[in-house]
């Protein structure tokens, strides 16, 4: 299985924030969901792929092409949607499309117009008259109509209603029916992942916590509930995080078999992505 | 390259048609009312050179450059297209404005003076200096930064004028003389044609340096 | 029953959009979620309540007052939080507080300080320097501090991560319970509503589809998965929309018992999420 996107040892530091050796791979024919709290570094990773910000170390390969050395070739295979789509505002959507079209040899004008129609967008409308959701839809129409091999979408479902979201996710699943294509998208809506993603990458405070097949995440992490015995320091390495609640002690493990052996009488619940995020990043609300 | 220029022309069509035509018409008409030959290169050059920068400033304002750079282009290509577009625009506006300056009834300057090789070359030289100087500043600091810089330069000019008496009028005058004197010296020693060629080469070098500096700034810029 | 918000036969048309005879009411002390596709009319309803746009017909009573006749009274008792909170960008939070507080008769500074502390708001920081989540917390603190009895939140959770959303909603619902406030809350993230809303109002194409207690809705609807026989003409009346996929047919029903009686083990019946209810009712191949 070859990689549509291969990120290795990516680093980027800002004041008060740093991406720390981020590595993950999106195989061809798959959809990867990128999740993490606001400010964890998702958008920075996506911008680094498009060379919108400068990396300090590491490499990004798009179908084997280095995104800096072969920038043009790499980017011509990417369909990109920005978190907050911004375009020249006082021109009609159709002009923006005709400015972008020549850059993509496989631009399909009929597909573009049918997407516009399906998304309820009028080609004569000016960009500035659109709501955030409509800007996102327009941006998606641009990204989807040139037969891109890799779609890189930064929160494409934010501000969109559940009906559109679901149709979009179905469309993404349709894209990877062509097994040489792949999708990377970030989201805050974890039900998006459950429906579509083959792989999930969780980023926390600039570092990758895991990047694994969705089912491995579902089965590989658990919340263990029990009494004070969980706090036993010699058993602490079994857990990624421990917290005390009014109902007892809860701990997060990514080594379910060993934890079960150590605490046969404890209650094991599957950990949702949200559970994992809360355990590993408990102070998020108060930052 | 063509694709990038085409993109800018589509996205800024109204601006290019509006400002690119009305503005030189206006400047040309105003120019026809003055008889100070130096105004054409010194002031006209500046007024034309800021037009492309205002055009790019629109993208700054809309924050739409991230989109432009997400297209399959390198940053150098992106910048090269901007330089070409800028020079095309400046040249067209200059040609239109200057034609109008001499064609309007009651024009103060004769066509022969305005379109003398020396005058054309001088205008190009000032445009190249203004644009070559401002473009890297614009890329590094954005439109606001560039304007702040222009205002700062004006303040320095005003201060110079205020303190002219202190420094002594002659010193300042001498300083300003250096330019035409130097040109004259080069001209007399090389002969007119080689001197022109030397100046052209100098302008090309200046534009190249400005491009490289802009490219270095753009490479570091984050969107 | 006392109502925080009563909307009767509200209508408004502009361009090709029409809000048609919208009526629903929110009892005091409860949280209502307002859901519907983009362009369904959620924001129009909210704007009409706040009298930001003129209605063509109907009546709106908030906290017992008519929203036009007693506009000032109402505005001082409604707290509005928008999806992109806007305050003077360059001011620090402490200064924003100083500029907005005098507008509200019942501004409670002690409460504001308590909330600022609880939300850990950096009062010395400029508004524009805050993250989206912190802006939202601040907007909420301001809305709560002027003793609003009715909070209207337009997509307060959009763009925020799940952990943050969960805590924000927990804080909100705890506050509501303590103080007997009411909330009208529009969102696209329906899973948030399943957690905290007491009532759900679903609007589509300018019309109310339903406005009912959450548990009643979630109890009433189910998704049926089965073979193509589900779509036979004699069963059509059972379903409110369906999808035909590569793996069979899925349909939404309000008659799960009857479906089970007719199809037995040939159909799997599962409780429907709000997202599924919306999806089938909007895109379910024209049963609606």
Summarize the structure in words:
The complex is a heterotrimer of chains A (287), B (223) and C (288). Chain A is of the alpha/beta class. Chain A is 31% helix and 29% strand. Chain A has helices at 42-49, 71-76, 93-100, 109-118, 132-144, 162-175, 190-196, 214-220, 256-262, 273-280, and strands at 3-14, 17-27, 31-35, 57-62, 65-66, 78-81, 150-154, 182-186, 199-204, 207-213, 222-226, 241-245, 248-253, 267-270. Chain B is mainly α and 223 residues long. Chain B is built from ten helices and no strands. Chain B has helices at residues 2-11, 13-32, 39-62, 65-70, 75-103, 111-114, 117-162, 164-167, 169-190, 192-220. Chain B is globular, with a radius of gyration of 19 Å. In chain B, 26% of the residues are buried. Chain C is 34% helix and 30% strand. Chain C contains ten helices and 14 strands. In chain C, the strands form three sheets. Chain C has a six-stranded mixed beta sheet, with helices on both faces. Classes of the chains: A alpha/beta (287), B mainly alpha (223), C alpha/beta (288). Chains in contact: A-B, A-C. The A-C interface holds A 36-39, 120, 131, 133-134, 155, 158-167, 188-191, 273-274, 277-278, 281, 284-287 and C 35-40, 83, 119-120, 131-134, 155, 158-168, 188-191, 273-275, 278-279, 282-283.
Précis, in short:
With 287 residues, chain A is of the alpha/beta class. Chain A has helices at residues 42-49, 71-76, 93-100, 109-118, 132-144, 162-175, 190-196, 214-220, 256-262, 273-280, and strands at 3-14, 17-27, 31-35, 57-62, 65-66, 78-81, 150-154, 182-186, 199-204, 207-213, 222-226, 241-245, 248-253, 267-270.
